[in-house]
Amino acid sequence: MLNISGSEQLYREAGAYLPGGVNSPVRAFRAVDRCPVFIDHAKDAYLYDVDGNAYIDYVCSWGPCILGHAHPRVVRAVQKACENGLTYGAPTEKETKLAKLIRACMPSMEVSRLVSSGTEAVMSAVRVARGFTGRDKIIKFRGCYHGHSDGLLVKAGSGALTQSAPDSLGVPADYARQTLVAEYNHPESVERLFAEHPGEIAALLVEPVAANMGVVLPEPGFLSFLREITRDHGTLLIFDEVITGFRLGLGGAQEYFQVTPDLTTLGKIIGGGMPVGAYGGRREIMELVAPAGPVYQAGTLSGNPLATTAGIETLTILRETAGIYEQLDQKAKRLAAAMREAYGERVCVNQAGSLLGMFFTGQRVTDYETATSSDTAAYAAYFGRMIERGIYLAPSQYEAMFVSAAHGEEEIARTCEAVRDAAKPAQAAADKTP
Ligand code: KE4
After folding, report:
1. Boundary (domain end) residue, out of 300, 320, 340
2. Is 279 a catalytic residue?
3. Whose CA is nearest to atom 6 of ligand 1?
4. 268 classed as catalytic
5. What are the strands of the beta sheet with 348-352, ordered from one edge?
């Protein structure tokens, strides 16, 4: 058993000052029923907790650390930038440089606005879509997560209700009513909403690879269907690429699947570990954003010199490193193969580039229904067996596994071995099942 007495002590203390002892719910390890480990430092592919335990990290801070932790070039660039002051609240050349880098990789983002989180990026993109179309309703998909702005903490109404309902206490029903909920990979659910709300839908928001109900890939043709139906109805298509942006490749999911949205939201990797989000699209849309136009949006630390430095350095390294995405994909494929081999028909493993996830279900996971057929208790047990072997996975079945450039041969091989080892008790149990 891991000695995590230091983490246990810190967790008790944190609970006195922070809701649930954390600053973001998933970090509390509640879905896996364990005490969270408190991290002392991180380097390359490893996290080191306060008790001195080392873990091969597949959370990578939920995606930003695609180069691994504390990449020397990024750290040096940020350290140097610190000497020039941390934030000015005034324009700097670095903001233009980061926006240029983003456009060079994602040409649909002709004009972008930098913000400080993915939540802010999505909230703002929805506002500008409403401003551009003069419409109020939006469509999102059940199981997709787009940050915690009120209008997006919404779930499908229960059977009888066609109206959406708040998915959090504190979200007014009036907000929820403007958000319609469709089913990921079910085109007919989208067609029905457009038929029921002609001329009312400002935007359709989608994770081009869903990674917040575990990893669920778009079925062939689904994204191009969304592109067509939104175009036919004068609705803006928003790709929430906070996870997939610079994860699936330099051009994100829109290049990977060759479908171009009207607006894109980014986060995570474009900050290289520092707080950066962005939303952007065609100039005719983005020119509505203040002060160029009447859609208001602002932020004290938006585009600050440290965060833009980290983002610029990270994207530059990604652009300069030939074959980096092919290597990331190969590593993820090896991990996926090890999981399928170890668990066989009892799991479904979905993988796209360096993003992957394993569901404890015998079904092929293609939507919310099949994702939630997963045995979350089995996932929690798997999580426990893996962390005891020094492998740090997402502490929830409904998150993703991220591979970084710092995961080398040793880390991948050790992880595959741990997967095989961790499957043994389950295999023995399965063999006993009549
Ligand atoms: P942030 O506000 O957390 O930077 O981004 C919100 C967001 C927007 N869009 C997508 C597709 C996202 O996945 C996220 C945030 N992702 C979660 C992990 N599933 C962040 C981890 C957390 O909430 O602690």
Report:
1. 320
2. no
3. 147
4. yes
5. 348-352, 355-359, 401-402
Please tell me the distance between residue 139's alpha carbon and the centre of ligand 1 in angstroms. 18
Q: Which residues, 6 or more positions from 24, have their beta carbon under 8 angstroms from its beta carbon?
A: none
Distance separating alpha carbons of residues 28 and 37, to the nearest angstrom: 9
CATH number at residue 304: 3.40.640.10
Rounded Cα gap, residues 421 and 387, in angstroms: 12
25 and 166, same domain (yes or no) = no
Residue to mutate (ligand 1; options 243, 248, 269, 399; most atoms within 8 A of CB): 243
The number of domains in the chain is: 2
Probe target for ligand 1 pocket from 212, 244, 274, 397, with the most ligand atoms within 8 Å of CB:
212
372-427 pLDDT, tens digit per residue, is 999 999 999 999 999 999 999 999 999 999 999 999 999 999 999 999 999 986 55
Q: 181 and 254: one domain?
A: yes
Sheet holding 263-266, edge to edge: 111-115, 277-281, 263-266, 236-240, 201-206, 137-141, 179-182
One domain, residues 286 and 211: yes
Nearest residue by C-alpha to atom 22 in ligand 1? 24
Q: Are residues 172 and 191 in the same domain?
A: yes
Shared domain for 118 and 238, answered yes or no, is yes
Could you tell me if 262 and 217 lie in one domain?
Answer: yes
Residue 184 near residue 367 (C-beta atoms within 8 A):
yes
Question: E strands, 95-230, where?
Answer: 111-115, 137-141, 154-155, 165-166, 179-182, 201-206
Domain boundary among 273, 298, 320: 320
Whole-number Å distance, alpha carbon 62 to ligand 1 midpoint, is 8
- The verdict on 291 and 353 lying in the same domain is no
Judge if 329 and 298 occupy the same domain: no
Q: Which residue in 44, 49, 57, 240 is the catalytic one?
A: 240
pLDDT tens, position by position, 228-272: 999 999 999 999 999 999 999 999 999 999 999 999 999 999 999
d(CA 303, CA 99): 10
Q: Active site includes 240? A: yes
Q: Which atom of ligand 1 is nearest to the CA of 122?
A: 8
Pairing of strands 46-49, 39-43: antiparallel
Q: For residue 151, give its domain range.
A: 72-320
CA 53 – CA 391 distance, rounded (Å): 11
In this structure, the residue with its CA closest to atom 20 of ligand 1 is 62
Looking at residue 51, which CATH number applies to its domain? 3.90.1150.10
Best of 62, 149, 168, 206 for a ligand 1 pocket test (most atoms within 8 Å of beta carbon): 62
